[in-house]
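Re: your question from the hallway

Yes, I did run it. Sequences:
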Amino acid sequence: MSTALQRRYQAFVGEFAAPLVCGGEMRVGRPLGERELRWFTSGTRADDPAIAAIIDARDAVAREMLVRPPALLPLENDVPALQLLVAAHNLMALTHPSLRAGLVARRAHTRIAAFTRGLLAGIPAAATPRDAVALHTVLWNLPRARRTDRTVRYWAGTRHYVGQAPPARMVRWPRLRRVQVEEAQRTWMAEGLQADDERVLLRDLLQRSPVTDLCHVRDGFRATPALAALAAPGLCRYVTDRLLERGLAGVAVPLCAAFDTALGEADAACPLPVLRWYAAFLVNLMITVVFAGGPPALGALIDPARPLLGRVALLVEREERPELGPPLGVRAGTLLADRDARTADVGRALLSLAQPGAPETLLGAAEAERLRLAIRRRFAAGVS
Amino acid sequence: MLERVALGQSRFNVPGIAADPRGVALGQLAALLFPSIDRVVAFFRAFSSDNPLGDVLAALHVFQVETPLRTREIIVLLPAQGSHFVDQGSRTARLVGGTTFTGSGKHFVLYRDDRSPLGYDSSELERAECDFALYGRDFSQTYRKVQELDFGALVKRLAPIAERPRPREPDEPPEPPPPAVWLAVRAGLAAPVRAYVWRHGLHASMAAVSRVADSAFTEARGEAALDLMLFRIQGASERVLRLFASLPGVQVFVPLGANFGVQRGFRHPFTLENCASVFAADRLHLFSGEEKRLIETAALPTFVAVEQMGPIGLDTVGVAGAPAAFPVPARAEPRRIDVQTLGSFGLTLRLLPAATSGVAVTATVVPPAQWTWLKKLVYALPSSQLAAFRVALTPEAAVMLNPQGVDSIPLGTFMEAVSPRLYLPRGWRFFPAVAPEVLFTHIGGREENLYFFLPGAAAPFFIPAEGFVTLERRALAALQAEGAELSTELTLPGPPELVNEDVGAFALWRHRLGVPPAGDGGGTTA
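Structure:
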């Protein structure tokens, strides 16, 4: 028993976990269950040499994230990271063509999805920036995972091979059998998931790692309480950098949708401190955009960034609380505009956003009023 | 037995009591009753901090007394210089567990308190034979003197206590060092300390003192001889004071008065400035915190400037072949001598050790034999020092300049600048003592060169000033930089390539997943 489990552990670490973290050919087979998970996280299993490569890669990613990254536990002792990897493996196994087919495929699919959902629910949420870094270093490469699908056309028909090489017999005698092989590379996260429950599982998987979740913000992204772990400025800079790499056009819509959803949610789903942090993050993102590109870039980005700019304008506009002094946008904008030439652009941009009527110009009167009411209702004490 | 004094009362039963201008019943003396000597020390510790005791010390008496039942207590008699003064003493005494009485002869009645703001009078007087009779609120007690305790001896017997560091604000400047200090140096250390003080140009003077013998045994062993050298140093920096304080055998004292002081880092329990009259004017009193006792000299030290105590090397001065005297003819006509025929005396310029040294060491000449050590030192130097040093490398020596001092490189021959362009070895002087400007002209000096005189060398050598560059430029060996290829990609690993394994037709046959672990089974992530 233990020998078989040890072999599975070595195969899992060497052929799945190490390639997922470090890059390379990542092999996905039968889903992993409770027995395997218990063996992986127990102290009785023998360590695999691939662990060293994973440790190095995680350290490199952590150094990329923070100037002074926290010390990470080795993977073999990092139980939440191991659980996250097992969940990722099972989610990929759900998309395995051999496991989709067959008479018992639907029931097995349901069982695997339920097990993985339970496994993800059992992983403790990241509570500190250290936890967030540790979890991101195992999942950071998942959005880049790709799969090569091949289509073999021959004289008698067509065969599709998803993430697999066609058998030798299928490509034998190519001229006689008129064999044509077409290859297509697909991003697994974007094109590999077919069923709804697979997409829900992917959302749950990414939500376990808030840095990964926010770096690869997409449709369906939600501001969860786990985002509170990103309160460290270094992590915010990292996430902002990743988002700007992707371009504001690609991230503005899901970021805004998550903000609108959080405004309408109860405090249990998205606590007010998290919402405040998320709002501050959006304002900072816009400031960074102006810093990075200056006003011309802001002008070029104005169309895709319009919803985001509109919400930032709502967040920094004049508040109905004169005892708090001038609104945030005027205060920060004046401060930055008067500071030096480098910050003057940001200051002027903030001042223009803080002008009365700016949200209506950017969002339209009805949308701006709806959001303004939602912000006032949710932010009872005002944004500070 | 006690009666409260009424306003305007002029007659009192207790002799020697009268009403002062405020109406308070007050005698000529205030008697403070303490149960033990430690309370007396505590009282004077608190009282001397705010009140100068110079005026009252002459009339201050401390008696050990005992009651008819043989219990012993302490009575301190203070001259009552007005009710305000006694009020302050009374408050302090109450703080440390004492009681205040007032009177003039042997009868003392309780001093005023909150219950009776104008004081008390006693209706009955003790007639028993006694030295003191104290009348309290609930008792009257007679005392007999056992002995008188000398307040001066009490001051001198108390050992200094270590000063607790005061919490400081982050931006608060450090306390300046005292303007003058005394160093008590063991006789064996006197010469090195004198040399150090002289070499660093400190304004100092020194004296040999003998301590008053603590006991007959000390004198019998001959330890009361000249076993202590006293240095008086003015304007020493904090660094130098810390250096002396850390040196075994050397104690640093801060003068608190003309003839008494306390070791630096310690303080006497009493405020000595307010007790100056207890110290004899013809002795020096130093309270040592390390030795926990008083060092008392037999006489006031006679200080001599350190410069007067240095080596002078007169035995090496002299001009070879100089006539002892000019023979004067009995009768001679004045003879005209052409000035042009006598160019100079032709004296050889000599470098001789000098007694004094006044300027800082700003250059050092390091011979090649010490370059290995120099390289190791350069590794340890901070960047500020690397930038401050300027160096010229010659085949014979590495000449290093630093206007702030070259102490951080203790190698080579230390040089001091006697003029902006003339450098002499530390502790050496020209003989004959010509002015540096004259010498500079004599050797044909140029403004763009720096001239160095080394002992034993036949002639000075010079280095162009432009030949000196900062040490950080000369420190590194040649290093060829290699061009790096610019890359916009991260140095992180590449993306993973998902490959679905061949799991067969019955991959999930008898495959049980089980139940996932509970939520709290995960532990922490790092």
